[in-house]
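Hi X.,

You mentioned you wanted examples for the new student's onboarding notes, showing what a folding record looks like when two proteins sit in one file. Here is a clean example. The first protein comes first, with its sequence line followed by its C-alpha cells.
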Amino acid sequence: MVETQIYTISKITQLIKEKLELNFNNIWIEGEISNLKIPSSGHIYFTLKDEFAQIQAVIFKTQRRFIKFDVKDGLSVIVNGRITVYEARGIYQIIIDYIEPKGIGALQLAFEQLKVKLAEEGLFEKKFKKKLPFFPKKIGIVTSPTGAAIRDIIHVINRRFANLHILVYPVKVQGDEAAKEIAYGIEELNKFSDIDVLIVGRGGGSIEDLWAFNEEIVARAIFASKIPVISAVGHEIDYTISDFVADVRAPTPSAAAELVISSKEEIQKNLHFLQSRLKDKFLSKIKYLNKSLELLISLCQAYTPLSLIRKYYQKTDELTSRINRETLNLISEKKESLIIMYGKFLAHKPTYRISSYQGILKQIENRLQSAMKVLIANYKKEYSKRFEILNFFNPYSQMERGYCICQKSNDGNLIKSISQVKTGEQLSLTLKDGKISCEVN
C-alpha cells in the first residue's frame, strides 16, 4: 500500500514560494494600479490588474527613492521584479524593482506632475517675478566650476563689461546629490546682501543630465530667493521646472550673461538718453523759476516807497472828499430840522412858548456847533496824520536828513547798487537844494 504524503500549510506554501521565485525571479508585467496604500513604514502597496485578473504588488522603501513620478491609482504601468508568496496570508505577489508609466517616460511624467502641482500653488505666477537690476555690481552664479556653462557666462560678461564682481558657488549639476547642492547654493548666496542677481544653470544634455533642475527642492529654493534668479539650463529647446519658477528664463548660459548685463555701448546710449532728458527737465525748471522771479519782481515793485506815496495820496483825497461830503450832509440835515421846527413855530405862534423855543433853539445851536467843532477837529487830526505819513515816504523829505537820489547822467536810471556803475561813468546826485554831477573813480 502506497503511503500518502501529507503537507502542512507552511510546507506547501514554502514549496510554492520556492517554485515561483525560481521560475519568475526577473519578470516584466503591465497593468493598472488600484487600491494604492502607503503606510507609515514608507512601503507602497497596491493591486496590479487587467481586465481578467489581478496580482498584489509591493515597492519597498529602499526602492521608492529611485521613483521620479507619483504612483497613483488608475495609472497604467510596466513593472519589473520577482514573484514571491506572502506566507502569512498565503497570497502570491510581485516585489517591484523598477516601474515606469506605460506610453510615457517616468521622467516626463514626473515633470508634468510637478509642473501641475507647482502651478496650482502659484509658483509660476507673474506677480511673484522680480525685475532684473539695470546694472548689477555683483553677480552670483550657481553651476559646475568645470563645465562649459561657467566659461561661457564669464566670457560673455567680461566681453560686455569687464571687471564686474562675480561670485561662483560650485555645485554638481547632475547625479543624485546635484539637486540638494544646487538648492543649498541658492540659499547660501542669498545670505550675501551685496549680490544683485543670480544665474542658476548648466550646459546642454539629456533629460536625465538636466533632471536636477526639475527637482522640487530646486524649484522651491528659486522661488524663495530674495535675489532675482535667471534660469539658464541646457539649450533653447530644453525646458525645466526651474525655467518656470525663475524670475527670467534664458535659453542658454551665454544668453543669461547677455540678459544680466548690457554692453558698454548700450549703457552709454542709455546714459546719453537720460542725460538729454535731465537737461530738458533742468531747462524747463529754469524757465519756470525765471517766470516766478519775474512775478516776484513785479509784486515787489508794487510796494516801493513811491507806490506807497501814491496810494496814501489817493486815500487822503478820498478822506477829504468824504469829510466834505459828510459835513455838508450834516449841515443840510440840521438845516432841514430847523426849518421844520421854525415852520411849526410860525404855524402856532403861541407867545408864551416863544421864550421856551428860543432856549431850545439856542441849546440845539450850541450842540450843533460843538459837534461840528469835534468832527472838524477829528478830520483835521486824521488829515495831519496821513499827511505826515505821506511826507515821511516822500523822497524829497528824506533829503532834509542828508539823503540824496543817485542817477546815471546819460539815461537817468536810479542807482541802487555799486554793481550798476563802472569807473568813469557820470552820475547826477539830487540833494534838497540842487543837483551835483560827479564821476565814478
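Then the second protein repeats the pattern, sequence line and then C-alpha cells:
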Amino acid sequence: MLGPQVWSSVRQGLSRSLSGNVGVWASGEGKKVDIAGIYPPVTTPFTATAEVDYGKLEENLHKLGTFPFRGAVGGVCALANVLGAQVCQLERLCCTGQWEDAQKLQHRLIEPNAARIIAVFKPKNEEPYGHLNPKWTKWLQKQCCPCCFGRDCLVLNQGYLSEAGASLVDQKLELNIVPRTKVVYLASETFNYSAIDRVKSRGKRLALEKVPKVGQRFNRIGLPPKVGSFQLFVEGYKDADYWLRRFEAEPLPENTNRQLLLQFERLVVLDYIIRNTDRGNDNWLIKYDCPMDSSSSRDTDWVVVKEPVIKVAAIDNGLAFPLKHPDSWRAYPFYWAWLPQAKVPFSQEIKDLILPKISDPNFVKDLEEDLYELFKKDPGFDRGQFHKQIAVMRGQILNLTQALKDNKSPLHLVQMPPVIVETARSHQRSSSESYTQSFQSRKPFFSWW
C-alpha cells in the first residue's frame, strides 16, 4: 500500500492534469477557472484498503476519515462527484502500484472531458452585495443609492449559503430537482482579487523560485482560496420560458404533460418552503428528451416506442431564506404562479411524498438543525437572524401543509396570508418547545394580488 505522501502526489498530479481541461464556471464573468486549488496537502494519514467502497465516496466518508482535499463540505472530492467510477478506478490502480494501467486510464479520463463544464462556482465576496463584486454598476448603486441597494428581507452576502441550503432542503424532501450544491474553497487567477492579494501571491512565488528555503516556509503559495457555492452543471437543459412557449404551440401528450406537472409541483414546494425571492421563468430549467424516429426503425415490423422524458432543474436559489416576508417596496412574487399548471390542485403523488415529512415535527426540527450547521459556517453568522429565517420557513411549511390537506392549487397556496412561527419564550423549563403563530399584515407597496 502507498503512504499518504505518495497518495497526495497522485491526487495532485491528477488535479493538475485535469485543471487545464475540465472547467468550473465562475459566477458573473463566466470564465473557466483552475481547479487545482481543490487539493491542499494531506492533513491526516491515510492508507487505502480493499474494504473501502470507492464507488460511494459520499456515503462512506466515515471509513475514509479526513480526505486530503477540499472539494465540498465534508471533504468529498468535487471531481469524484462528477467523474465518479473512472476516478475511483484510477485510485485503485495507483494504490496497487499498477502504474502503466493508471497512466493509460488517466489519458482516457482527460481527453473526453476536454473543455467540459462540470460546475458553477459563486464566490461569497463576489456576490452582488460582496465587496469584490466585479460589476461596476453594483458598486455605483451601492455608493449612490444605499437605501435602495439590496433586499431588506434578506441577510446580505449569504447567497452562497442560500444555494447550498436549497440543495439541502431538496435532498431532505427527496424532490431531486436542485443540482447538488456544496460550500467549497477554490482559488483561481480569473477570480476578482484585491491588488494586495495578487502582489502577495506573486511575491511568494518569486521567493519560492529564488530562495526555496524561505519560500517553503509559507503556509500557502498562490492566491488565497475563496469560499462559495459549488453547484454541479446540468447538461441538456434549457430555460423554462423557452419550453413553455413551445409547449403552448405544440401541446404535450397527456402522459408527458403529467410528468411536467409532477415536476412543476416539486418546484413549487421547494420555492415556497425556502421563500425564494427570485424565481422567474428564466431561472429554472426544463430538459425535454423526445425520442426521434430513425430510418432503421421504420423498416422493421416491430418498433419499441419510448415515451418522452421531461425533467425540471431549480437553479439560482441564492436569494432565498428571508428573515421576514417582503413588506417594503416589492413583493418578489413567484412568477410560476401565472402559469396554467399553477391552477391545477396538488396531485396525490406530491401529497404522499411531502405531507408525511412536513407534518412530522421531528423532521422539521432535523431540517432546522441541518440548516443551522450549514449557516453557522459563515463568518458573519448571527443566531438572531437565523432564528428569524427559520420562523419564516416554519410559517411557509405550515401554509403548505394546510394547502396540501385542503386540496388547494399552487395559485391558492401563494394567496394564503404569510405566517411567522416563532419559538415561544418561556421562563419554565420544558422537554418540548412551544411556538407562537402570527400573521404579517403589512403588505409591500407594489403588491401582486
